[in-house]
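Most newcomers find our protein records easier to grasp once they have seen one. A learned vocabulary of local backbone shapes supplies the integers on the structure line. Here is such a record, shown just as it appears in the course material:
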Amino acid sequence: MSDTYHYEDGAIHHDHKRVINIDHIGGDNLGKLLSDFWKDDAEEADVVEEANAMAETKGEGERDEELFHFVHPELGDEEAWRIHDAVKRVVKLQGIQMICQYLSQLRQENKVLLPPNPSAAYNELVRMGMPTGEGFNEITFRKYYNKK
């Protein structure tokens, strides 16, 4: 027999599958969710403590990663992190040409300040998660970078 737990923030987990589906869960329910999920494990207290600490950190607006270096300095923190997340998503899912077009669009909207040196931009995008394999090398990047 499997137990199904529903939480008010929309999270659900089924004990028989040991899977958690989290859509928009707040920090208050995260500890309860994890304690129910890990109820049979000996390390329950450590997991719940760590999850609560992470929820508190996220609630304060702090992140454990470095912000995208080329976000315009006049933008607020919330907007800067939104752009950071969008750039991170684009570099993981798109090709060089689309990445460069997206960066140009952000530059035109005054949301980023792009460096004139393509190497600096390429290295930052690699740090953000852009692949470096075939079709994603710096030579290809230079062909499309800062095209108007």
Observations:
- The CA atoms of residues 25 and 117 lie 42 Å apart.
